[in-house]
Amino acid sequence: SQQGEEDPQALSIQEGENATMNCSYKTSINNLQWYRQNSGRGLVHLILIRSNEREKHSGRLRVTLDTSKKSSSLLITASRAADTASYFCAILAYSSASKIIFGSGTRLSIRP
Amino acid sequence: SAVISQKPSRDICQRGTSLTIQCQVDSQVTMMFWYRQQPGQSLTLIATANQGSEATYESGFVIDKFPISRPNLTFSTLTVSNMSPEDSSIYLCSVVWNFQETQYFGPGTRLLVL
Q1: What is the dihedral of CA A82, A87, A91, A92, to 10 degrees?
Q2: Å from A6 to nearest chain B CA?
Q3: What pLDDT sits at residue B8?
Q4: Which of A52, A74, A98, A108 is most buried, with most CB under 10 Å away?
Q5: Nearest CB to B92; choose among A42, A97, A103
Q6: Under CATH, what is the fold of the domain B27-96?
Q7: Chunked mean pLDDT (size 10), chain B, 114 residues
Q8: Domain span at A23
Q9: Region for residue A28 given its phi and psi (left: phi exceeds 0; alpha: psi -120 to 50; beta: otherwise)
Q10: Assigned domain for A112 exists
């Protein structure tokens, strides 16, 4: 399966702490994207990292990609209550005609 | 920025009936997709909606159960046919503009089948 696997499945941290979520996949990719979903609503695109990139930043988000290990991580620094959501990685494999395949997701809870 | 809308936002349906979900984009897109998200699960790709031709379905999904139309570059429909409680899910459309890499999602349609 090309699906990404994420760990942990669930993460609960104190507000202000950093949250790290990991994504592993099995195939060669063109890029990897991270999405956030609040309570069963639509998905919000967070960040895209290409296969030739190793790290990207966007505000409090930091994404790394290690294509040799077929893994990525999403770090949210200085977490806030509003960061409580489910986070999904999604991979765009080579020759996949723009189809992205989602990982299993991490449910992040921020305790006030 | 471009807007993706879905109708209905939610519905409660009786088993054996069918529901058609609409996805409307306010600008032309190159690709449109339909996903299903079962309760507590991740997203699973149902099919790629092809403009003017039959959709391309993923393994485990068939046209008789999930007929899809895409008459133009801004609109698509997904029908969930002969529904059963197992079809209770969130159905989401997504789009890609100008063959860009990023995929953007509609707000989803929450379906409950009794």
Answers
A1: -40
A2: 11
A3: 97
A4: A74
A5: A42
A6: Immunoglobulin-like (2.60.40)
A7: 89 97 94 94 93 91 96 96 97 87 92 97
A8: 5-107
A9: beta
A10: no
What does the pLDDT read at residue A2? Answer: 46
Q: In the predicted model, what is the mean pLDDT of residues A40-62?
A: 93
What tokens were used for A56? 């990207």
Residue A59 lies in a domain: yes
* Cβ(A38)–Cβ(A110) below 8 Å: no
Within 8 A of B98 by CB-CB distance, chain A residues are none
What are the residues of chain B with a beta carbon less than 8 Å away from any beta carbon of chain A? Answer: 30-31, 33, 41-45, 48, 90, 92, 94, 96, 99, 101-108, 110
User: Taking CA atoms, what residue in B is nearest to A40?
Assistant: B90
Q: What are phi and psi of A107, to 5 degrees?
A: -90, 115
Residues of B in contact with A35 (CB under 8 A): 105
pLDDT of res. A3 = 63
User: Which CATH number do you get for residue A66?
Assistant: 2.60.40.10
Apex A80 CA angle, A6 and A108, nearest 5: 25
How close B90 gets to chain A, by Cα (Å)? 8
pLDDT-derived band at A93 (thresholds 50, 70, 90) equals: confident
pLDDT the model gives residue B102: 87
What is residue B24's predicted lDDT score, i.e. its pLDDT? 97
Nearest CB to A100 within list B30, B103, B107: B103
CA distance A10 to B86: 25
pLDDT tens-digit readout, B5-16: 999 999 999 999
Which of A3, A95, A100 to mutate to test binding with chain B, by most B CBs within 10 Å of its CB? A100
Domain ranges in chain B are 27-96
